């Protein structure tokens, strides 16, 4: 189970600690056949079914009071096809294990998110993404899926086989079936040079289009209560490898980004008035650095300080205006925000309910330290995001319903029609899906 989500006395909790559920039954099937049989048994008992990964969603997307399926025995690589440039993995494989195994084989995903604790199926089902000018989310790199549907049958889909299911199931929210295996496009492992440097907020906003156009992967963090950001540019490199030196890496990634940051958040939670001063120090603590390494060592980093998060995708051309409104709102409010705001991008993709479906997108993520009241901040931020036709990340806190989402997703009804066909009895139902997809 790892340290990610916890189950005590029959209660399941997510990583952020803000969602819990008491399933009636739990099972950890060792094969696709066992999983299909468990779904059929649940149907006989008219029990809802949910599969849960490592609990890294902040929404109740995986919560159930019925049968909880844990895919921890469904892990590992099934097949590598070097000619086709694909790898097929079991659904419960953590991204960390996939990345390490691929590197050993001289292979890599093209793009990834900033943590790798999630299972591959949890990551794609909620639309997990990193940042990219040309390369999109993890789900956009999927070339084939195997899923167990509501009647217990096993369905394979790809661009050629059941393409209508493939279009939707890559980001299926757990609503269409239980993913049991995923085929990813991979490429020969490559090197990325990361350049991290502080930059004033106004300059990032003024030069955002240029920074986005000139870099394969551009992102930045803005520290609320300051005019400072920390920017990250990752670009392919001919080498040589120049990893972050161990002591320096430990100091910046573990001590500053996790240890001191944790302590600063404890102080901020106890004395909210101290947060702006802490933010000014935090924003200056991380110095500029450049390093070159294989992708997963550049894209991902440990996140040990627990938080809750809301993230919205807005049209890329609306980013700067949305961000300036967010900053103005924080500046004039009594809010005290100790976590940086993260900004990333993705090109348009063709997945039915992807946050980047049919439009070039920019992501704005707001976070609050676990245990601090977040509702006031998130409500005010959400009001700004939705005014720009924002689409919420499926795995992060939001209050949207099907009526709103059907307006911002042109293919929304295509998804719900497919759900009607694949799961007419709503075997995979829960409260979250009832809200975001309608009943």
Give the SSE map:
Blueprint: E1 6-8, E2 11-13, E3 20-21, E4 25-27, H1 32-44, E5 49-51, E6 67-69, E7 77-81, E8 86-90, H2 95-104, E9 107-108, H3 120-125, E10 142-148, E11 154-158, H4 163-169, E12 178-185, E13 187-188, E14 191-200, H5 201-214, E15 217-222, E16 228-237, H6 246-270, H7 275-285, E17 289-293, H8 295-299, E18 307-315, H9 319-332, E19 341-346, E20 361-369, H10 375-387, E21 391-392, H11 402-408, H12 412-422, H13 431-437
Parallel strand pairs: 4-6, 5-6
Antiparallel strand pairs: 1-2, 2-3, 7-8, 8-12, 9-13, 10-11, 10-12, 14-16, 14-17, 15-16, 15-19, 18-20, 18-21, 19-20
Helix pairs in contact: 6-7, 9-10
> Low-confidence parts, pLDDT < 50 over ≥5 residues?
none
Q: Could you give the count of β-strands?
A: 21
| Percent in helix | 25-40%
Based on CA inertia axes, which overall geometry fits?
globular
The assigned structural class equals alpha+beta
Question: How does this structure look, described?
Answer:
By secondary structure, the chain is an alpha+beta fold. 33% of the residues lie in helices and 25% in strands. The protein is built from 13 helices and 21 strands. The protein has helices at 32-44, 95-104, 120-125, 163-169, 201-214, 246-270, 275-285, 295-299, 319-332, 375-387, 402-408, 412-422, 431-437, and strands at residues 6-8, 11-13, 20-21, 25-27, 49-51, 67-69, 77-81, 86-90, 107-108, 142-148, 154-158, 178-185, 187-188, 191-200, 217-222, 228-237, 289-293, 307-315, 341-346, 361-369, 391-392. The strands form five sheets. The protein has an eight-stranded antiparallel sheet with strand order 17-14-16-15-19-20-18-21, sandwiched between helices. Strands 7-8-12-10-11 form a five-stranded antiparallel sheet. It is globular. The protein starts with 5 loop residues before the first strand and ends with a helix.
